[in-house]
Amino acid sequence: MLISAPGGRLRDYQELEHIRGMTTHQVITTLCREGGRPDLSRITLGVDESLREHAAGAGKLTATRAAVASLVACYFHWFWRPDWRLVTIGRLRDEPHPDLIWRRRDECVVIDEIKTSPWTGLSRQLQEQLEGYVALGRDRLGEEVGGVRLCPLRAPRRAALFTGPNKWEEIW
Predict the structure, then answer these.
(1) Does residue 103 register a pLDDT over 70?
(2) 2, 58, 108, 148 — which has fewest CB within 10 A?
(3) How many other CB atoms sit within 10 Å of the CB of residue 110?
């Protein structure tokens, strides 16, 4: 059974979800690169800059703008740490790639996997993705990789640090 999207147009809903996800990732990575915790005006400006490329559907983007700003603010409220240093933004290889890679004060490396879609739990596909990121990170960056921090922005209290197959540490 398909769950109907707002207004009954599943394809439009999926397209907007895709735009929300891409834009959220783009804004978070841009703001992390700039450094420091951004204030709301900087988040809003970042969202506006990022959404300009989707101007053709501008009438549908008002709600998307607010949703993206909320997701970005959620990341910086729940997951950004002032004492962590940004190592790199994704792309250790072509595909797949982790979102952000951080070095904590204790020199442990943490890979962030940011999820913008509604949280439905840990699927086999997601678990395989996280296992792959741990292996890739340790292969490229060494044993100092502590794991992958799962950052579900629509359910931040569900965040956890994945350290290996079936190995989780609660964050909160």
Answers:
(1) yes
(2) 2
(3) 21
